[in-house]
């Protein structure tokens, strides 16, 4: 039947026409017949319409967490622990991220795939606010606190779609007087202890890689300062039962140094010296905060 908004198909199939194709009217084992297929198609269309409508919504439907503001402001950690963070999966759903675009790290943290940029490439570009050039107070209220506070005001009070982008804490300033790198007071990232110390674990991987490189440089400088060229050469290219032989990495280094000889026993004294020594200048190495870990 027809209606004001258009027309739609109802009821079962036309038997006389459908009888010409037996598979159309003959249900498969389990009862999946033409009406079941028709309803599945209708559900698919409805789901697609809802998905498109959701993508077109300009304002996020976010459930903001209430804050219990006290006149005597507690410490940052007390404020953070007094609030129960929302599950990050719920937050991702509220702002329109697909499950395939979110990599969860527990219930409170997640990484967002860069594929979101491609999916939303046709969206209108938003405004970009840079918080910079602030001299923090003795207690550390500076760029991070201001950034989080602005985001809270624009999102929770002005009802605008907004993201706060702050760097991952390097832990260097975390334990100083400023306390943390997640903002402060009622304008901070929660859970603040996980944000400051771990987040998704990337900072630990960077720290391990940095320490490995520092140990390699330190060991190399020590060996080069205490051993002769021949001793170093013997360690790098040891004489085995099958004789001496350069590895592929060592052959690449020879090429980089302009040495064409590939027989370990035929290198000159000058070529051996160039090969075994990096001659790292100690004055070019700065350990910065690494000294805190090397004193033990």
UniProtKB/TrEMBL annotation:
Q: Name one GO molecular function term.
A: methylenetetrahydrofolate dehydrogenase (NADP+) activity
Q: What is catalyzed by this enzyme? A: (6S)-5,6,7,8-tetrahydrofolate + formate + ATP = (6R)-10-formyltetrahydrofolate + ADP + phosphate; (6R)-5,10-methenyltetrahydrofolate + H2O = (6R)-10-formyltetrahydrofolate + H(+)
Q: Which residues form a coiled coil?
A: none
One example of a Gene Ontology biological process annotation = tetrahydrofolate interconversion
Please state the Enzyme Commission number of this protein: 1.5.1.5, 3.5.4.9, 6.3.4.3
Q: What is this protein called?
A: C-1-tetrahydrofolate synthase, cytoplasmic
Q: Which GO terms describe its cellular component?
A: cytosol
| Protein family according to the UniProt entry | In the N-terminal section; belongs to the tetrahydrofolate dehydrogenase/cyclohydrolase family.
Keyword Oxidoreductase on entry: yes
Instruction: Outline the extent of the Tetrahydrofolate dehydrogenase/cyclohydrolase NAD(P)-binding domain.
Output: 5-50
Pfam families cross-referenced by the UniProt entry: FTHFS (PF01268), THF_DHG_CYH_C (PF02882)
Pathway, according to UniProt? One-carbon metabolism; tetrahydrofolate interconversion
Q: Which UniProt keywords apply?
A: ATP-binding, Hydrolase, Ligase, Nucleotide-binding, One-carbon metabolism, Oxidoreductase
Supply the source organism for this entry.
Halocaridina rubra
InterPro entries for the chain: Formate_THF_ligase, Formate_THF_ligase_CS, NAD(P)-bd_dom_sf, P-loop_NTPase, THF_DH/CycHdrlase, THF_DH/CycHdrlase_CS, THF_DH/CycHdrlase_NAD-bd_dom
- Does the record bear Oxidoreductase in its keywords? yes
Gene behind the chain = MTHFD1_2
On subunit structure and binding partners, the annotation says: Homodimer.
């Amino acid at each position: 039947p027809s209606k004001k908004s258009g027309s739609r198909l109802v009821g079962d199939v036309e038997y006389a026409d459908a009888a010409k194709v037996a598979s159309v009217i003959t249900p498969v084992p389990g009862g999946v017949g033409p009406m079941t297929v028709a309803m599945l198609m209708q559900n698919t269309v409805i789901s697609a319409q809802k998905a498109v409508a959701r993508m077109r919504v300009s304002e996020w439907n976010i459930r903001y967490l209430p804050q219990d503001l006290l006149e005597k402001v507690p410490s940052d950690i007390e404020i953070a622990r007094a609030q129960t963070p929302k599950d990050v999966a719920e937050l991702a759903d509220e702002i329109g991220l697909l499950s395939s675009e979110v990599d969860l790290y527990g219930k409170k943290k997640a990484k967002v795939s860069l594929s979101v940029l491609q999916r939303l490439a046709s969206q209108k570009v938003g405004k970009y606010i840079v918080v910079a050039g602030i001299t923090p107070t003795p207690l550390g209220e500076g760029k991070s606190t201001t950034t989080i506070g602005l985001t809270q005001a624009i999102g929770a009070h002005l009802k605008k779609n907004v993201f706060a982008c702050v760097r991952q804490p390097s832990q260097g300033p975390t334990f100083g007087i400023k306390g943390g790198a997640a903002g402060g007071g009622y304008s901070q990232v929660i859970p603040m202890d996980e944000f400051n110390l771990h987040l998704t674990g990337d900072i630990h991987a960077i720290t391990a890689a940095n320490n490995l490189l520092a140990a390699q440089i330190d060991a190399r400088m020590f060996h080069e300062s205490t051993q002769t060229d021949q001793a170093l050469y013997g360690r790098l290219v040891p004489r085995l039962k099958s004789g001496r032989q350069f590895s592929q990495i060592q052959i690449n280094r020879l090429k980089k140094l302009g040495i064409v000889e590939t027989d370990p026993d035929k290198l000159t004294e000058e070529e051996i010296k160039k090969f075994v020594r990096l001659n790292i200048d100690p004055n070019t190495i700065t350990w910065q905060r690494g000294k805190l870990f090397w004193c033990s």
